[in-house]
Amino acid sequence: TSLGVNEPDFSAMDNDGLGNGRLWRLIFGFVFSLSVNRCAGYILKDCRISNGNAICSANKLRAVPRGIPASVKTVDLAVNKIAAIRVGDFVNHTVLAQLDLKRNNISRIEKGAFAALRSLQKLNLNNNRLAQLGDFFEGLSNLTELRLTSNSITTVIPSSLKPLMNLTVLDLSFNKLRHLTNVHYAIQHLPNLRYLFIKKIDITIFRSWELTNITVGPAYLDLSQNNIDVFAISADVFQNLTWLNIGGAPRKRKLICEIGEGTGLKRLTTLDIGGLHLERKDAAALFRSVNFSLSTLRMNAMKRNLRELLNMSCTIPTLTQLQLRGNRLQLLDSTLLRLCSSVTELDVANNRMQNIFSDAFRALQGLKSLTLSQNRLSSVPPAVRNLTKLLELDLSFNNISSLGCDDFAELRKLRVLGLYRNYISTINLCVFKDLTNLQVLKLQTNRITKLNGVFTRYLPNLRQLKLDENRITTIEKGAFEGLRSLQNLSMQRNELQKLESGSFVGLTMLTDILLPSNQIEETEITAGVFNDLINLRRLNLLDNRIKYRSSSALPEAPFSRLSQLETLAMAGQHGRGRSQLPRNFLQGLSNLLIFDMRNAQIVSLHQDTFKHTPSLQKLDISSNELTDISPRMFDPIHNLQSLYISRTSLRSLDFLKEANLTKLEFLQARRNQYSVITVEQMASLPSLVYLDLQGNGFLCDCDNSWFLQWMNKTPTQVYDAYNFVCNYPLNLKGMKLLDLDIQSCSVDVGFIYYVSTTCAILLFQLTAFTYHFLRWQLAYAYHLLLARLYERKYRDRQPNCLYDAFVSFNAHDEDWVYRELLPKLEEEQGWRLCLHHRDFEPGKPIMDNITEAIYASRKTICVISRKYLESEWCSREIQVAGFRLFDEHKDVLILVFLEDIPIWELSPYYRMRKMVNKRTFLSWPRAAQCTELFWEKLRQALQSTDNADGELLLLTVEDKG
Ligand SMILES: *[C@@H]1O[C@H](CO)[C@@H](O)[C@H](O)[C@H]1NC(C)=O
Ligand SMILES: *[C@@H]1O[C@H](CO)[C@@H](O)[C@H](O)[C@H]1NC(C)=O
Ligand SMILES: *[C@@H]1O[C@H](CO)[C@@H](O)[C@H](O)[C@H]1NC(C)=O
Ligand SMILES: *[C@@H]1O[C@H](CO)[C@@H](O)[C@H](O)[C@H]1NC(C)=O
């Protein structure tokens, strides 16, 4: 904005500076705009892919990492420990446009290492250890910018840069090239070179013909910080040179200029001869060669005869920008600049000036920009009053403590006024009364305690007001009422405690307000305060003391009229105790896109918190002690794209499963305790492209095998996955999650087939074998088992006995049962009997029927004949009844033999044999003579209740044998 800043800005790749305008970007994080590239991702080791850029910087890498996706446009490998670039490091990167390798230890580059990079346009190798410019640039035919500053290059192989036929920028500064021939070797085959930087390459003699004989040559030549003794230019070279810097040398010796007549500095517009000691005749030769072309002259920190040099140079009629920094002028009198009438931009910063004569600028009637910063002025010098054409005035970094009513009296055209870094404590209303065109006023870093109504009337065109780092405690009602064009108001780092209702009245054009690092409490954020800011887009209240004690609704929401607000930053609220957010806090913010509530000591969020902000895209609630989040909280904000929940004590990501976050692309959840990531959680985020789980301790067992597999195949980029460590089980603590062997977790289908087929075959053989040799034993065991199963089923729901006895018999013996047994027992003795054919429920499985009948009866009478023993059902009845005996200690079984069967024939019916041996049976054939006794014994048997072992009643009709 001020003098002589015409030089090109090539610093894009190493731009570290922080402009004022970047504050918002800084505060709200680079990541909001991060629309991550879908096609690249996965779990790239040591790099992060964002927006088509691979960022692998500051990672202590010793080699170029493998697997950087071929689709990326830029690769940043700066600040690592890479020692060599090898063939194979960049094989597939045919679309790569920028490669940053600065600040590594690169001492060797293999021939052909860059051969595949045919789209590469910018290559930065600054601050490495290359000693020679060798022939390793083959293939870089599209390269336009090559930076090699601060290596140790001493030699250049003559055609090393020949492949770079499109190179326009070459920076070889800070190498020990020592002789221009080396530079000549480097540039001789670069027809398109326009910018040549050879700062401090230890040359002492510059003779143009040693560099080049071609007439066109570069347009920008930086030779600064070389200790040049001789500067010689022959005719007809550098015909395009517009920018030349030969200054900046810490030298004491004289510079001898040998400028050929009619030579080619004819187009030079910018010349820097800062710090040089030039004799009159040399200076005259130099200035003569640029007469009628030069517009910008920098003579900073000149060693001698500044006045003489000024008197010469100011005769150049085209000179408009003059920079005279660091010349220890101390005072500026009317003679120094008397010939500089064409100058419109003057920079006399850093000259220890305490005094400026009131007619010092009399000759400079066309002055538009004046920089007086970094001097020792204690008041605004009266000399500036007459500069009626002035557009910009910089008085920053002086000792000004007060401003007078007439200080800026005539500066009606002034647009930018810099008064920052002074000692101003009070300003009166009259000070800015004539600055009707002022657009930017910088008053930061002073000692202002009160606004004193200074902004209530004048400055109708002010767009930007900076009041940061003062000591303002209160904004009174209407304090900014006169600033009807104000768009940006910045009051960071004051001591603001009090905002009065109507503090911002009149600021209807305001779009940005910065109030971070003050002492504002929640009681000041009342409904009235912000109501006037109807055009506000960004409100920053970072680092204040806004803490609510309860989440209940406020009587009136504080931002209810800010419907245009897009960003609300409230991170870092401090003060004692925990905090809540009133559930209607965001009411009215229907266009809110970003809400930052990081580190505000919030302990819970009501599920209605975001009911009024349907447009929300980015939500940052990191670093709060939230133990729980209701998934319902996300219902109104289904457009959410970025969610930050790092350091929130949330124990799992399960809330995602129920939240409708189908558009979420970015999730940062660092340093929580998510030990297991499940398929359901990730399935609920179908749009996710970037997942950052850094610093969680993972469970290293099969529970995470899905997560491990997913990471390897998902298009979602899982940031830093290579550094995920196991936290549990203890024996694996500290191991890398990705090193976990999950082979054993997934079962091999082929193996299952093999095992099951083998088992089936073996089983079949076994069955065949047993059937053949052991079928009877098996059949018995089988029935035993079935009987046991059924018995278990019925044991517990034993109904009250429906029958006195269940009669089990074979169809062959039906005759006897119906003619003899039934009439006797049912009609004569009055028992209720259950008979197979009569009482079984039709349709029910026969086994169920039998078992039910046995359990529904007090006793079971088995009518045994040879046929009965051959029938499988009958023997099962005996067994079920047998189990009842065994389990309930109830002898329910009454055996009635219709035939004499020798004991040995009973042998498969093991239980029965035991009973027969114990003589607890009745034999019909043997009772043939006295049937009455037989029926009486049967009656007794039926009558008896519990006789555990059947010994109490001797049921034998007659003793055996
Ligand atoms: C080289 O750059 C030009 C313009 O920047 C571009 O059109 C061309 O496609 C590039 N060549 C390659 C091989 O990428
Ligand atoms: C330029 O020409 C001069 C004289 O003809 C010669 O000595 C010098 O080597 C040439 N320089 C280059 C860089 O070719
Ligand atoms: C530039 O040219 C003008 C007009 O011819 C002349 O008066 C002036 O002295 C010249 N300046 C220098 C530095 O040669
Ligand atoms: C989830 O959000 C989408 C829009 O993003 C909507 O179409 C869908 O109905 C929502 N589903 C539920 C269950 O709310």
TrEMBL record:
Report the protein name in the record. Answer: Toll-like receptor 22
Q: Which GO terms describe its molecular function?
A: signaling receptor activity
> Which residue ranges traverse the bilayer?
none
- Give any Gene Ontology cellular component: plasma membrane
Q: Quick check: keyword Repeat in the entry? A: yes
Q: Could you tell me the superkingdom of the organism this chain comes from? A: Eukaryota
Q: Which family does it belong to?
A: Belongs to the Toll-like receptor family.
Q: Per the annotation, which location comes first and is thus the protein's main one?
A: membrane
Does the record's keyword annotation contain Transport? no
Q: Which organism is it from?
A: Hippocampus comes
Annotated ranges, domain TIR:
801-942
**What membrane topology does the UniProt entry give?**
Single-pass type I membrane protein
Q: What does the record list as GO biological process?
A: inflammatory response; innate immune response; pattern recognition receptor signaling pathway; response to bacterium
Cell compartments where the protein resides: Membrane
| Entry-linked Gene3D superfamilies | Ribonuclease Inhibitor, Toll/interleukin-1 receptor homology (TIR) domain
> Which terms are listed as keywords in the entry?
Glycoprotein, Immunity, Inflammatory response, Innate immunity, Leucine-rich repeat, Membrane, Receptor, Repeat, Signal, Transmembrane, Transmembrane helix
